[in-house]
Amino acid sequence: MLEEAKTILHGHVLTLMVTGSGGFNISKTLDVPFIQEVMACSQAIKILIPKTDAAIELGGEDAKVTYFGDSLEQRMNGTCAGGTGAFIDQMASLLQTDVQGLNTHPAKLKSPLR
């Protein structure tokens, strides 16, 4: 996979880091820096879609919501809740809407997400 990426990315400058629950050991083996996944996602959002107000990330082990604005606020559930109705209800509550609002609010955006 890395050899294929090398062919595609040849001549381009990039920064490579490893993240995720199993990433620390992989980063040591590859001698590549490790970055905590919430920090990696937040930095990517700030660069790629800087007008983002909030981001919800569903992982295999947990779920996170990050609020961007004057001050960064991040919340994370304590146990695995990805894919459950309880998690969806929790995210709606954090965003001060209901479950239907999670579906309708994005439709009101003035510019498309990338």
From TrEMBL:
SUPFAM superfamilies per record: Actin-like ATPase domain
Gene3D superfamilies (UniProt xref): 3.30.420.40
Annotated PANTHER family: ACTIVATOR OF 2-HYDROXYACYL-COA DEHYDRATASE, BIFUNCTIONAL PROTEIN [INCLUDES 2-HYDROXYACYL-COA DEHYDRATASE (N-TER) AND ITS ACTIVATOR DOMAIN (C_TERM)-RELATED
Identification of the protein by name: Activator of (R)-2-hydroxyglutaryl-CoA dehydratase
Organism: Desulfosporosinus metallidurans
